[in-house]
From TrEMBL:
Protein name: Phosphoribosyltransferase
Entry keyword annotation includes Transferase: yes
Pfam families found in the cross-reference section: Pribosyltran
GO MF annotation list: glycosyltransferase activity
Length: 164
């Protein structure tokens, strides 16, 4: 098995604080933090608190189906954000990782015609990413173990409780 990047909860706290400091130092003051669910929910919440932004929105995008397994293209799932809610706003799009960049590109392009400014913040960015985020905590080409997804679920989608 290839070497992996490990992010635990304590390091996540440090990473998101340092991301928030980058954003603040740049002078960017987002009106909205737009989380790409699911992985982007965690940095979005942390950045929302650190940047004193209470207006958080979520966009659901499916791309990864397993470790290094993905759909041909990312798909935005309902409910899709209402563009009226984004109109004229400065939007900070957040995700845990810019891997291929396809998910960030989908969301950034969705926002492009409706917002005053859209910038991307990620914990990790890989060199192959077609989108270069404005705010990046760390660059790596390793597979990343995030604290929220490195252990299996406790239940399956049909509600069955799994053995520990």
């Amino acid at each position: 098995m290839a070497e992996r990047e490990e992010l635990d909860w304590q390091l996540f706290g440090k990473a998101t604080r340092e991301l928030a400091e980058q954003i603040a130092a740049s002078g960017y003051e987002p009106d909205i933090v737009l989380a790409i669910a699911r992985g982007g929910l965690f940095p979005a919440g942390a950045l929302g608190y650190a940047l004193d932004v209470k207006n958080l929105h979520v966009v659901n995008v499916e791309f990864y189906t397993g470790v290094e397994e993905r759909l041909p293209l990312p798909v935005m799932l309902p409910p899709v954000p209402n563009v009226v809610d984004l109109s004229g706003a400065r939007v900070l799009i957040t995700d845990d990782v810019a891997d291929t960049g396809a998910t960030l590109k989908l969301v950034r392009d969705f926002c492009a015609d409706h917002v005053a400014d859209a910038r991307c913040a990620v914990i990790y960015e890989k060199t192959i990413s077609e989108v270069k985020a404005e705010y990046v905590w760390k660059r790596t080409d390793k597979w990343i173990n995030f604290p929220w997804s490195s252990t299996p679920p406790v239940v399956t989608r049909d509600g069955q409780v799994l053995d520990a």
